[in-house]
Amino acid sequence: QVQLVESGGGLVKPGGSLRLSCAASGFTFSDYYMSWIRQAPGKGLEWVSYIGSSSSYTKYADSVKGRFTISRDNAKNSLYLQMNSLRAEDTAVYYCARDRSGDYDIWGQGTMVTVSS
Amino acid sequence: SSELTQDPAVSVALGQTVRITCQGDSLRSYYASWFQQKPGQAPVLVIYGKTNRPSGIPDRFSGSGSGNTASLTITGAQAEDEADYYCNSRDSSGNLHVFGTGTKVTVL
């Protein structure tokens, strides 16, 4: 069935790095834009970044621009988020989602990232 | 800070109708989508392209909009509709995505 599964979350110290992965199955991954969306504990949803179907187009929220890098490998049906210079305010559940111009119709279950010393 | 503003919380009696609104200047140019999120779960798309329902979403959910406001209406609210609801659209530049501040719906 159509599915997204995130991995790579964990505990990291401020200033550290982490790479999240999202494995897609059940649909033609290379046909779709993909997004990362996060949710801090007890807070609302925040869009983080999206990437075009062939990786030629990427955008980032101002809060992560210059620190996070989104990428994909269509041959492996996988989406990635490289997170550098992590801050306490980056602590959140990170979701990957299939993106149809902001209509996120498929979501993963999320992976928790905790930035703390 | 979010460019899309929602009321923090609304309540509705079982079987009655509730409207959730989302306000922002970008809505004059771009459609909103709506997401339902229950505790401990990933969000679910309930309305896209302002008025369209994905398959599997009950027809008691409907979307509308005019000017700088998008709305999600639940007609005949059920206990299982109790959740947080978020709108989503573009920011004022049109290049980035943005979520609304979220509305907690309580079914009494």
Order of helices and strands of chain B: EEEEEEEEEE
The assembly state of the depicted protein chains is heterodimer
Strand content of chain A: over 45%
| Greatest chain-chain contact | A-B, 20 and 25 residues
Mean of residue pLDDT of chain A? 97
Q: Characterize the biggest β-sheet of chain A.
A: 7 strands, mixed
Low-confidence stretches of chain A: none
Helix content of chain A: under 10%
Shape of chain B: globular
Describe the structure.
The complex is a heterodimer of chains A (117) and B (108). Chain A is mainly β and 117 residues long. Chain A has strands spanning 3-7, 10-12, 18-25, 33-39, 45-51, 58-60, 68-73, 78-83, 92-100, 103-107, 111-115. In chain A, strands 2, 4, 5, 6, 9, 10 and 11 form a 7-stranded mixed β-sheet that branches. In chain A, strands 1-3-8-7 form a 4-stranded antiparallel β-sheet, with no helix packed on it. The N and C termini of chain A lie far apart (39 Å). Chain B has 108 residues and is mainly beta. Chain B contains no helices and 10 strands. Classes of the chains: A mainly beta (117), B mainly beta (108). At the A-B interface, strand 5 and strand 10 of A face strand 4, strand 8 and strand 9 of B.
Topology:
The complex is a heterodimer of chains A (117) and B (108).
Chain A: E1 3-7, E2 10-12, E3 18-25, E4 33-39, E5 45-51, E6 58-60, E7 68-73, E8 78-83, E9 92-100, E10 103-107, E11 111-115
Parallel strand pairs in A: 2-11
Antiparallel strand pairs in A: 1-3, 3-8, 4-5, 4-9, 5-6, 7-8, 9-10, 9-11
Chain B: E1 5-6, E2 9-12, E3 17-23, E4 33-37, E5 44-47, E6 61-66, E7 69-75, E8 83-90, E9 97-99, E10 103-107
List key phrases describing it.
heterodimer, A: 117 residues, mainly beta, 55% strand, B: 108 residues, six-stranded mixed sheet, four-stranded antiparallel sheet, 10 strands, 0% helix, globular
